[in-house]
């Protein structure tokens, strides 16, 4: 708990220019990402060598650097993820921001690094922070949706620092709980490629369009003292996709606020500069009027910034210009390719004598040939000859053009090669080593495969319980505390993916009753894991802790989980690779109406009751109230049943029917599944199964 320390000001560094801007504006620390495995893959980011240089630069300026590795990691990425930690340790990075459970398992291999839970990890209450302490996490970035009192409750532990966002764009959904972008095109917000579907127009059933899900920007620049008194250690500015000018100005304004300058005038200056409506709503416990406008408000500063951004995105951005100097005085053809003052390449070619003029080409012909070639992201700027009157063979000219194309193709490939090539310590190698398939993962996904596990909403499920008894397992959501003792032993009580401080005691009591009655819990957050562990209750990991790699499964197993769930986002290749190497029994959701997001923001649900929201890509949602949150439920059916992928073998094939609130419809769906029929007559969507999850 931070009572006496000054607040650390943490700034975004999407590239080296932004890093320099943040440092010069007064940041105490910066957070940045590699070219892969981070939640802002659209930023400029840093290569391996650039990361080392960035850390050296920041260290010389007395500024800390934190590396973001805050995405879901696939089976094939585990080696690179471990090497990213090795690189961070070598570069002198102070801490790494993580989401995937695999890093909990790897942390012991890198004692020189601190580990911070990213906001993607979904830490929204004090139980989540207690789990962070159990897992050896030094700091937790709290969910943006928390009020001042909830932040204070989560910041009471001395062993774990807390960090809160104070400025920048906000997602409509709780971080780490959104599948909208992935559902609409395979680009996952949980893997750094979000396409921002919450910023577009959404049409209701009456045809009225509005940017209903587009959030105002968060701004707490007037609240540093309240944040510090709440026990927070670090305030964070969002913006790794921003330009250096924006980073400098915003960091400078927060530095002035922390140094005691009048907040009101700074807030007005910040609002003018950022150009978007600002809100402190969640911090103040408000959940209404937080969204509904995606455009920027006009201001001279905002216009100036837009002009700078436009000029930076022109066709010359990132271009390399090169010149060529040809020497033949030593009886050899030698071409010096000058790329910069410090960088050059030498091309050696045979010098063939040209006996007949019509078979040769002159300097002007070669210059024209080179000017018409494609050099990837480079541009030919001229050529000089020490013997400009000489004739050269066509073969030599073509070979020169080919060699230049090869050089710049390799440079482009190298520039975009994000592979981390660094030796990995043995302990880390042992940790990520794949195990053999768990023997319980024996049910293949074939055309004849049948569902053996069903997820349902308890108020609906209890009315048609007889139709569910034949399934090997039933997971119920929204279970009433007093009904737990009446559950069958093969019925699991699911804790929600997102809950806040005021619900902790309720779920602690539920966990204790589950233990006493021999009922297994399904946990869907790190807070849920902590509640289950404290109660001594048996638990499995559900969709809120979905995984893509075997090391994450190992981490969950070592925490005590009996089963884990494969990410519903996964494509068939990633599913197969995980199923072949998981040390835990796995569940795979094969059909249903999935939850595509969870939000705490309130839009006019009453006016939209019973209606479907639809965006321009055809994503169709229904708003489903759930305690303090609202679930964004797909109105289109998902199913991979009937696929013939025998290499995919799991313990459970699951149907997610929690979105069905009508008992008659739930009974019909269950009966159809029991007979091996599609659970709905509606046309189904395969999500990312047949495409590539990015």
From TrEMBL:
EC number: 3.4.-.-
Keywords: Hydrolase, Protease
GO-annotated molecular function: peptidase activity
Top enzyme class: hydrolase
Transmembrane segments: none
GO terms classed as biological process: proteolysis
Name of this protein: Putative protease YhbU
Annotated source species: Sedimentisphaera salicampi
Lineage, highest ranks first: Bacteria, Pseudomonadati, Planctomycetota, Phycisphaerae, Sedimentisphaerales
Gene that this polypeptide is encoded by: yhbU_1
């Amino acid at each position: 708990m931070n009572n006496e320390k000054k607040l650390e000001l943490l700034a975004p560094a999407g590239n080296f220019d932004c890093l320099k801007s943040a440092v010069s504006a007064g940041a105490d620390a910066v957070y940045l990402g590699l070219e892969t495995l981070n939640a802002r893959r659209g930023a400029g980011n840093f290569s391996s060598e650039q990361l080392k240089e960035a850390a050296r630069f920041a260290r010389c300026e007395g500024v800390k650097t934190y590396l973001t590795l805050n995405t879901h990691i696939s089976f094939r990425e585990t080696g690179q993820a471990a090497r990213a930690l090795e690189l961070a340790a070598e570069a002198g990075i102070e801490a790494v921001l993580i989401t995937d459970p695999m890093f909990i398992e790897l942390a012991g291999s890198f004692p020189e690094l601190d580990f911070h839970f990213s906001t993607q990890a979904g830490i929204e209450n004090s139980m989540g922070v207690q789990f962070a302490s159990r897992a050896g996490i030094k700091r937790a970035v709290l969910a943006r949706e928390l009020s001042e009192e909830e932040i204070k409750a989560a910041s009471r532990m001395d062993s774990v620092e807390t960090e809160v966002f104070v400025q920048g764009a906000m997602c409509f959904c709780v971080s780490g709980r959104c599948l909208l972008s992935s559902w609409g095109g395979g680009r996952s917000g949980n893997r750094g490629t979000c396409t921002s579907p919450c910023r577009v127009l959404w049409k209701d059933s009456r045809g009225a369009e509005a940017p209903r899900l587009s959030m105002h920007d968060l701004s707490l620049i007037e609240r540093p003292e309240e944040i510090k008194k709440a026990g927070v250690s670090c305030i964070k500015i969002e913006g790794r996709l921003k330009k250096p000018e924006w980073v400098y100005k915003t960091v400078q304004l927060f530095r002035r606020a922390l140094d005691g300058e009048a907040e009101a005038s700074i807030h007005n200056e910040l609002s003018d500069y950022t150009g978007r409506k600002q809100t402190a709503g969640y911090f103040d416990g408000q959940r209404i009027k937080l969204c509904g406008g995606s455009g920027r408000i006009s201001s001279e500063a905002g216009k100036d910034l837009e002009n700078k951004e436009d000029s930076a995105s022109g066709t010359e951005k990132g271009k390399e210009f090169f010149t060529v100097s040809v020497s033949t005085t030593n009886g050899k053809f030698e071409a010096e390719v000058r790329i910069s003052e410090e960088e050059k390449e030498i091309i050696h070619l045979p010098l063939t004598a040209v006996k007949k003029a019509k078979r040769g080409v002159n300097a002007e012909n070669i210059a024209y040939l080179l000017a018409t070639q494609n050099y990837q992201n480079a541009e030919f700027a001229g050529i000089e000859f020490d013997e400009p009157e000489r004739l050269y063979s066509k073969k030599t000219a073509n070979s020169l053009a080919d060699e230049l194309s090869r050089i710049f193709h390799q440079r482009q490939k190298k520039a975009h090669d994000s592979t981390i090539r660094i030796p990995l310590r043995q302990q880390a190698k042992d940790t990520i080593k794949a195990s053999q398939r768990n023997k319980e993962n024996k049910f293949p996904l074939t055309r004849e495969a049948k569902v053996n596990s069903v997820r349902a909403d308890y108020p609906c499920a209890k009315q048609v319980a007889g139709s569910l008894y034949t399934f090997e397992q039933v997971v119920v959501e929204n279970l009433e505390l007093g009904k737990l003792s009446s559950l069958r032993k093969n019925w699991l009580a699911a804790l929600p993916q997102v809950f806040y401080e005021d619900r902790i005691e309720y779920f602690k009591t539920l966990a204790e009753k589950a233990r006493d009655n021999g009922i297994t819990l399904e946990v869907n957050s790190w807070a849920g894991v902590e509640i289950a562990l404290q109660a001594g209750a048996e638990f499995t990991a559900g969709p809120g802790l979905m995984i893509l790699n075997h090391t994450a499964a190992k981490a969950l197993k070592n925490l005590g989980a009996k089963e884990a769930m494969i990410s519903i986002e996964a494509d068939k290749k990633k599913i197969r690779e995980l199923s072949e190497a998981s040390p835990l029994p796995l569940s795979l959701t094969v059909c249903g109406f999935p939850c595509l997001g969870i939000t705490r923001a309130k839009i006019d649900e009453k006016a939209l009751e019973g209606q479907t929201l639809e965006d321009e890509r055809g994503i169709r949602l229904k708003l489903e109230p759930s305690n303090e949150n609202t679930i964004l439920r797909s109105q289109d059916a998902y199913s991979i049943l009937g696929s013939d992928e025998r290499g995919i073998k799991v313990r459970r094939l699951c149907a997610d029917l929690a979105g069905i609130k009508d008992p008659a419809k739930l009974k019909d769906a269950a009966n159809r599944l029991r007979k091996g029929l599609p659970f709905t007559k509606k046309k189904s969507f395969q999500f990312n199964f047949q495409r590539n999850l990015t």
